[in-house]
Amino acid sequence: MAVVRLRRDGEPGFPMRVNWQLKTVLPVAFVLLNGLLIFLLATVSLRDPERHEVLIVAGAGAVAVCAAVLLALAYFIQRPMVELQEKIDLVGRGDLNVAVAFAKRNDEIGDLGRNFNRMVQQLRESREEIELLHRTQMSRAEHLATLGELATGLAHEIRNPLAGIAGVIEIAYRDLPSTSPARAVVKDVRQEIAQINRILSDLLQTARPHPPAVRPSDLNVTVEHAVMLVRQQVLSKPIKIELTKCPGLPPVEHDSDQMHQVLLNLLLNAVQAIDGTGTVHVGIEALPDQAAVHVVDTGRGISPEHLPNIFRPFYTTKGNGTGLGLSLARRIVEEHHGRIEVESEVGKGTEFVAILPFKQEASEAAAS
């Protein structure tokens, strides 16, 4: 029974390897030796005509040897190359269930075959992973589409009677005497109705996204408007909002209304994360082909177990939150072909970074 040794890389080893260079040199050496033999025989033949027949036999033998060597080379080198070319053609057509048979050989051509088979196996495994991810994403997209249709219908069904309730509450509020203690209760009801209305608006915006109407404009101005609005809301709080604009920032193609909504959401989240005195710093930075808006707060921070889920719809750690703000913000930024990054440390604060390209793709910008 033959014993097969294993090399260090786990591949089966063999007692002896014959390099392909040696196989290529062999026919040349045979031809040179046969030529020398024929030359010697010819010299002898001229001195002794009787040995002419010996010369013929030796020459025929040399030709036969060269032919045998060439046939061996064709079998051991050309045939594997033809097989490899055929298998590469099959791989190019999408068939990844292929393998070369000469991978069992114990030479460089065998190494080539083993590397080829290993590469095809890796491609096959990668394609299976991509197909699984695609099926998962398609299932998720169908699920979200169904939820979006359901959410849209529910939002409309809730908003219509809610408007009637709000109207009745307004009438009752006006009819109540100014000294009536019920006026405080009605005021709370009005605030709850406004909160429900905001939730429905966010839900509709999430379920029925509108493509951004991008145009080249100054991102500094968009950010400054959002900062001014939030500053008005924290006048009575010991929270300082700082803004560092980027002079010379090239125009950024974006929908100013949608990005204004994104920045408002990030800023309000930053303000709500601060208990007592704190600072929210907003900075604009020019990157290669991109602009970045940093929103950094000195608030509570986000715990590591919550951080991976903050962009999921309806996920919130706030008692009065809808869980739609960050999800909507990320969708808007991604529709601008950008991304949102976040870093946070509990007790020290959180930093959100919205990154936008200076220019959108021409076809997509025209479509929007």
Tell me briefly what this model is.
This protein has 368 residues and is an alpha+beta fold.
Please give a structural write-up.
This protein is of the alpha+beta class. Among the domains are: 5-95; 215-367, Histidine kinase-like ATPase, C-terminal domain (Heat Shock Protein 90, 2-Layer Sandwich). Helix content is 58%, strand content 14%. It has 8 helices and 9 strands. The protein has helices at residues 20-47, 52-92, 108-175, 182-207, 219-233, 256-272, 325-335, 362-367; strands at residues 5-6, 12-13, 215-217, 239-244, 252-254, 278-287, 290-297, 339-345, 349-357. The strands form 3 sheets. A 5-stranded mixed sheet has the order 4-6-7-9-8, with helices on one face. A hairpin with a 5-residue loop joins strand 1 and strand 2 (12-13). Helix 5 packs parallel to helix 6. The longest helix has 68 residues, at 108-175. The protein is elongated. The chain starts with a strand and ends with a helix.
